[in-house]
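=== RUN LOG ===
request id: a7f3
mode: sequence -> structure
chains: 1
length: 412
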Amino acid sequence: MRHGRSAFLLLAVVVSSPVASSAQDDPLDYPQWRGANRDGGAAAFVEPSTWPTQLTRRWQVETGLGYATPILVGEQVYTFGRIGDEEVVKALHAASGAVAWRTTYEAPFRNNPGTSRHGPGPKSTPLFYDGKLFTLGINGVVSALDASDGSLLWQKPAQTAEPLYATALSPVADEERVIFHLGGHDAGALTAFDANSGTVVWQWDGDGPAYASPMVAVLDGVRQIVTVTQRQIVGVDAESGTLLWERPFVSRSTNNSITPILDGGEVIVTGHDLGVTRFRPHRDGARWTTDTLWTTDEVSMFMSNPVLSGNTLYGMSHLRGGQFFALDASSGATLWRTEGREATNSAVVLAGDLLFLLNNDGDLVVARTNQTGFNQVTRYEVSASATWAQPAISGNRLFVKDESHVTLWTVE
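=== RESULT ===
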């Protein structure tokens, strides 16, 4: 037992010899939200010559409630969930599911009545960076753990205010810094911490956090953090946190939850009943401006993040009860849409010319990228309970988080 720098009591138990890897360039790694490049790309998947009638279940481990994607580094899987009043981080051996270590801290949380169906989280996917694991708890606790044994390196306490639907964004790393957007519905600060010490490097406090996750981009030659807030989408200087540019972006329920897509020097954004927009931030003399390239209201995304394959954007629109779609990313033209009522939410992963579409009802749809229509390859049931988290796909392995477990499925 040990006390961190905050008042939270944290317990780390090493259950068996750890096998954590410090490598961050292994093509099989899935080290953060939406994969190595935060774009929904699967890690080194190879399509079988013949798809099996069923996936093979290798193991299943209780990891606690929540929406956090399991991440994979080397042969170790890291999970983040809630069991009772504790938030629990586990390291599992990828081959067997055996627990290498388990770390917990007290994190009592009560949903407000309007959000009880969302559950008590946590909803943020951990980040592996430079041998460390960074987590963001449901009420804003920031923790840095040694990925080899789960010991606490530093921790920041819960926020005094939190977003309406509680914390849901996933942190990003950039040049020895880890970036979180902390705070509540009306106020907060995009914050860069020193990854080693937890010291605040910079803060931008222009708006409260949303539920989308920040991205690192180089736009018009300037390295910056691009993120969606409660009321806008912004770019801030990655070195100083200085605001470079901003655009109004207020969804119907101020539930901005879709991570921006970066394509070259341009940004694609979407939100609840906001359609899809592509724009280009650039310098105009000493000032920054953003030029709208196209916008469409034929599709719109609520909680399903899209993927970009070449010049085609694939995803699930919340319109018509859930439609799979494809857009021409250069013009915004709709290429096709399914009839609707597919699912409330679908977590989309791109693997070569394949789309893995994990619907919230536990169905996994495999489809082929196609600009002329929806092309389903096969479909599997991977859970009897809700699957809101993004799956982690590496090689022929699919790590799927349901309401309270992580299951390893393989494509044989």
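=== NOTES ===
The first strand starts at residue 2 and ends at 3.
The two ends are 42 Å apart (CA to CA).
=== END ===
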